[in-house]
Structures are given as structure tokens and as C-alpha cells.
Write a structure and sequence with these properties.
The protein is α+β, with helices and mostly antiparallel strands. Helices cover about 30% and strands about 15% of the residues. It folds into 2 domains: about 140 residues, endopeptidase fold (from Nostoc punctiforme), CATH 3.90.1720; about 110 residues, no CATH class.
């Protein structure tokens, strides 16, 4: 299954961490020091992130290919979500990273469609502030937020519906997955109530958890870094934020059924 966090991370990699140039005639030579154009880069990053791109080959058929595989074509409202594909069906495509930034392959060092291999200017592939291209549509992966707007069962199990609702409330990509986690050691912390199908590993962190950590830090109940990891400090902060840091709920470093019931109750008010 595709992962939006991985898509964002791969676009960051290609546009900021390595030298990747712009050349429409060599557009599939995507490697450090190679070449791409706007659509080949997005398609390549989508595949790296595990998404089915079907027969997509350029901007003109990208929408049809992706909407056949779980993406929705939405009107442009100036409020993209992290992981959205920003599409002009004729001329350009980019990926919205969040925090007002997008990643894109832009133009060669000559200001034309072709140039030397590698990024000669530092701007052939780039990350910059969101702008109105103009875009024709946003392509968004996963469930419509309205599909996760119903009441959750307060059952203490953090399964796909609970994770999706949590993501929708926090304004992060909705895919029912807490991605990029570390395996709990079972001693300093545990996550017994998080369903196995709702977590992936790798240690790079989750946008959902970053949003949660930012909120907890603002509430003064979390002092750790914004690393996206649902670890002991974050779980402790959740207990405090949700009002269940009681003796009966110890240890406060366990993401267990009692904490999840409190979370589900809060999410059912469409707040966190």
C-alpha cells in the first residue's frame, strides 16, 4: 500500500538532498546526478512510495491513472494537504509537502526543457513556498474526510477507523497508518492498543504524530522533539492531554485501551 509520508520524504530527497537536473529528453534518468522533468519525478516518487501509478507517463494522463487507484480529483481551494499532488493537466505537476511548501522539478539551467545532467543551478529541482501555478486540481489519496466524520466506537482499539479519524482531525494525510515507527521495547513503553495493520516501521516518523507532538508541546505536556515517533514521552503527553494521567492508568507510557478510549471519546467531538 502506498504511503504519503514516504512520497513526501522521497520528493524532499530528490529536490533538496541530491543533485537532480531538469531535462525532458532524458526525463527517466532519475538518480543522483541525473535528469527528470516535473511529471517523471512525481511518478517515480509515487512508485518509490508504493503507489500504483497505472499507465501514468506525463501530466496529461496522471489524473486518470491515479483516480483509478484510490486518489480523488478535487477542486483547487488554496488549502492543499500534505501529500496532495498539485496538477495542471497540461503544463506542470508538484507535490505539496505541508507547512506551506511544495517540491517540484522546475526548469533547466538554460531556462529551457533540456540541459546538462545534474542540478546546475540548485533550482532545477527545488522546494519552495506554495504558489498558484495555476493548478487545475489537487489529487488527494485516501478516504474523503466526510467518510471518517461519523462517531467512533469507544472500544479501546486503535484500528483503521480511529487512526483515520485522528488524521482527519489533525489535518494530516488520511491513510489509516501511523508510519515510520520504531518497535517498542516493551519495557520503557508499549503500544498494545495500536492495531498491527495500522503501523509501519523505519524510524522516520509520522506526520500524524508530529502534528500530535506539536499540539502536546503547545499544551505544555510534552518536552520531546518533533520526531514523529509514538514513543514514551509522546504517550505520556497523551495521557496528560486527555486527562487520564491517573494512578489507575499507570504506566503512562503504554498506549493501551484506556488511553485509546479517552482518545476516541475526544475525537468523537471532532477535536483533539
Amino acid at each position: 500500500m502506498g504511503n504519503l509520508n514516504t512520497l513526501i520524504n522521497r520528493m524532499r530527497y530528490w529536490c533538496a538532498e541530491v543533485s537532480l537536473g531538469y531535462d525532458q529528453t532524458q526525463r527517466w534518468n532519475i538518480y543522483p546526478g541525473g535528469e527528470c522533468d516535473c511529471s517523471s519525478l512525481v511518478i517515480y516518487a509515487l512508485r518509490e512510495a508504493g503507489f500504483d501509478t497505472g499507465g501514468a507517463t506525463y501530466t496529461g494522463n496522471l489524473s486518470a491513472a491515479l483516480t483509478a487507484s484510490g486518489w480523488r480529483r478535487l477542486p483547487v481551494d488554496g488549502n492543499p494537504r500534505p501529500g496532495d499532488i498539485l496538477l495542471n493537466d497540461v503544463h506542470h505537476v508538484a507535490v505539496y509537502l505541508g507547512n506551506g511548501q511544495l517540491a517540484q522539478a522546475s526548469i533547466s539551467e538554460n531556462g529551457t526543457i533540456s540541459g546538462a545532467a545534474g542540478d546546475q543551478t540548485g533550482r532545477e529541482t527545488n522546494i519552495r513556498a506554495y504558489y498558484s501555478y495555476p493548478w487545475n486540481a489537487y489529487l488527494r489519496y485516501g478516504a474523503d474526510q466526510s467518510s471518517v466524520s461519523g462517531a467512533l466506537a469507544v472500544d479501546g482499539s486503535c484500528g483503521p477507523l480511529t487512526v483515520a479519524k485522528w488524521q482527519a482531525v489533525m489535518g494530516t494525510p488520511v491513510d489509516s497508518v501511523v508510519s515510520g515507527q520504531l518497535i517498542p521495547d516493551g519495557t520503557t513503553y508499549a503500544r498494545p492498543a495500536l492495531a498491527d495493520e495500522c503501523v509501519t516501521y523505519g524510524g522516520y516518523g509520522s506526520q500524524l504524530v508530529v502534528a500530535v507532538q506539536r499540539r502536546l508541546k503547545g499544551a505544555g505536556v510534552y518536552t520531546g522533539s518533533l520526531d514523529g515517533l509514538l514513543g514514551p514521552k509522546t504517550i505520556d503527553g497523551l495521557h496528560r492531554h486527555l486527562g487520564v494521567a491517573t494512578e489507575a492508568m499507570r504506566p503512562w507510557t503504554s498506549f493501551g485501551p484506556g488511553l485509546v478510549r479517552a482518545l476516541q471519546t475526544r475525537l468523537n467531538t471532532n477535536t483533539f
